[in-house]
Backbone:
C-alpha cells in the first residue's frame, strides 16, 4: 500500500450523500456533500451523487481532481440489502481504484461503535435495527414505505393521516391531528387527501412532529400512535438483545423525541454513538483494503 | 326531447369503463367496455376510455358512429369527489350532446336502489360507504391507498404484507401469510419487498384472497386482520344508519368473503341490489336531462 493512498468514506441516504476523505492514518483531509444516494430509489442518481461528493472532498482537501482514480472508497448506501440494487451498484464501472459496498446501516453501526461489535437502531424517516456480532451484520425491520419501517417518522405520519380521515368521517375518535394536518398542509377536508395522495415517505415523515406535539398535549389518538411506534422500537431493541447485542445506539431524527416513550429497561440500554456513519464508511474502506 | 334521443350510462372504475346505451324508455340498445376510467389516477385516460366505451355501445346497437354527438351521457367516475379531479372532468370539451357527472359510488347507489333513497357499502379493491337521503348523497371513508379504504382488498393485502415482514424478522407473531405471500409472488424473503415496492392498490388487493384463506384455516394473524377490516365495515354501516339509511347493499368483490365476518345486526341489514352501477348511470342521464 502506498503511503500516499487516499481513502474515502461515503454515507449515502435518501436526501444526501456525504463524503469523508482521509489518509492512511485515518486523518481527515476533506469532506463533500452531494444529492440523494438511495440505490433502491435511483441507482443512476446514486452513482452521480457519489462521484460528485468525492470530487467535492478532493477539492476541499486542495487535491487535484485526477486523484479520483486513486481513491479507495467505502460506501454505505440505503437499498443495497435488496439483491437487485446490490447488483446494480457492484456492476458499476466506477472511476475509483477500489469500491467497497455495504448498507447505510452497516456503516452507521461501524461508526457508532468505532468498528467494534455492537448494535444500532435508526429511527428517522424510516426505521431499522442492526446487530454486528463477530463482524457479521444482521438487519431487522426496515423494508420501506408503506409496509415496513414501523415506528418511523413516515409510519407516524401515515397513521396520523389515517386517524385524521377516520375522525373527519366520524368513523373513528375525534383527534386534534385532523386540524394539525390541515394547518400543516394549508388545506382542509378532502384537500388533505389530494395533498397527500402519491406522497413519499418524506412527505409522511414531515407529519411526524405533529404527532409528538399532539401526544404531548394529551390527544389520546396521537398518544396511541406514538405508544404503538415506541412499542415496536422496544420490540426491535429486544430482538437485537436476542441477537447478542444488548446495548445499542439510537440514531436518526426521531431518537430524541421517541426516547421518553420507550420502556425503561430499553431506554437504559441506549449508548451514545462514538462516531458518525461517514466515519464508519471510512473504516469499511480501510479494513477492506488491508484485508 | 326527441323521441329518438339516446342515453348512455358510464360506470367508470380503476380497471375498466362500462357503457350502457338505452332509448328514451330506458330500453337497452347496446353495451361497451373499455380501459380504466379513474379520474383521480388519470383524467386523460378516463376521457379516452369513456369515448371508446361509447363507440363500442353504438356499434353493439348497430347505430352509426356519428350518433356519438347526439348522446346524453351520465357518468359515474371514481375520483371526482376530489375538487381538482371534478374540475378536470367538467372542463372537458366532450364530444356528446350532454355530459352529467357523478361519483362512481353515487351511480352504484342509484343502480342498487333503482333511483330511490338508500345506502351502499362497496368493498372491493377500495372501500366506501354512501348514503342517499332526499336525493342528497354523502360519502364516508374511501380516500385512497395507502391511508384510506380500510377493510378493502388493498387494505387487507397491505396489512398482510406488514404482518408477514414482522414475522420474517421475528418482530411479530409467526403467520402462514409469509409463506402464502412468498408463493403468490413467486419469490422469498427480501424478494417480496422488491416485488411489492411501489405496488398499486390493485397489487395489494391481489393479496386479499390469501388473507381470507389463511383466516379460514385458523391463522390467528390473518383472523386478526380480517376481524379489524370487518369491524371497520361494521362502523361504516352504523355511520350510514346515523345518516338515516339503516338498510344497505354490500357491493364489490369482497362482499361475499367479508359478510360472514360482519356483526349479526349489521349483516341482517344487507339487501340485494336492484340493479348495477351502469344502470344507475343511465338513471343519472335520464333524470338530469329531464330536469
Residues:
Amino acid at each position: 500500500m502506498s503511503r500516499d493512498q487516499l481513502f474515502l468514506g461515503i454515507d449515502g441516504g435518501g436526501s444526501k450523500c456525504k463524503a469523508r476523505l482521509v489518509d492512511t492514518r485515518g486523518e481527515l483531509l476533506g469532506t463533500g456533500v452531494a444529492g440523494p444516494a438511495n440505490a433502491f430509489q435511483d441507482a443512476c442518481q446514486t452513482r452521480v451523487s457519489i462521484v460528485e461528493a468525492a470530487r467535492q472532498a478532493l477539492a476541499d482537501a486542495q487535491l487535484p481532481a485526477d486523484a479520483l482514480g486513486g481513491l479507495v472508497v467505502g460506501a454505505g448506501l440505503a437499498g443495497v440489502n435488496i439483491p437487485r440494487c446490490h447488483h446494480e451498484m457492484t456492476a458499476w464501472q466506477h472511476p475509483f481504484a477500489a469500491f467497497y459496498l455495504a448498507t447505510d446501516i452497516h456503516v452507521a453501526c461501524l461508526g457508532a461503535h468505532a468498528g467494534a461489535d455492537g448494535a444500532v437502531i435508526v429511527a428517522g424517516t424510516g426505521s431499522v435495527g442492526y446487530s454486528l456480532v463477530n463482524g457479521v451484520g444482521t438487519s431487522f425491520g426496515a423494508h420501506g414505505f408503506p409496509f415496513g419501517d414501523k415506528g418511523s417518522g413516515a409510519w407516524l405520519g401515515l397513521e396520523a393521516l389515517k386517524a385524521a380521515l377516520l375522525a373527519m368521517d366520524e368513523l373513528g375518535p375525534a383527534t386534534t391531528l385532523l386540524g394539525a394536518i390541515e394547518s400543516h398542509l394549508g388545506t382542509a377536508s378532502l384537500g388533505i387527501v389530494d395533498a397527500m395522495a402519491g406522497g413519499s415517505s418524506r412527505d409522511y415523515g414531515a407529519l411526524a412532529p405533529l404527532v409528538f406535539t399532539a401526544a404531548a398535549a394529551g390527544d389520546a389518538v396521537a398518544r396511541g400512535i406514538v405508544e404503538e411506534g415506541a412499542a415496536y422500537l422496544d420490540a426491535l431493541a429486544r430482538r437485537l438483545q436476542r441477537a447478542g447485542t444488548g446495548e445499542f445506539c439510537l440514531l436518526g431524527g426521531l431518537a430524541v423525541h421517541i426516547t421518553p416513550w420507550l420502556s425503561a429497561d430499553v431506554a437504559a440500554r441506549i449508548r451514545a454513538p462514538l462516531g458518525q456513519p461517514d466515519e464508519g464508511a471510512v473504516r469499511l474502506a480501510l479494513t477492506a483494503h488491508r484485508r
User: Anything to note?
Assistant: Chain B has a mean pLDDT of 95. The radius of gyration of chain B is 21 Å. Chain B touches chain A through 33 residues (CB under 8 Å). The domain at 6-114+274-290 of chain B is CATH 3.30.420.40 (Nucleotidyltransferase; domain 5).
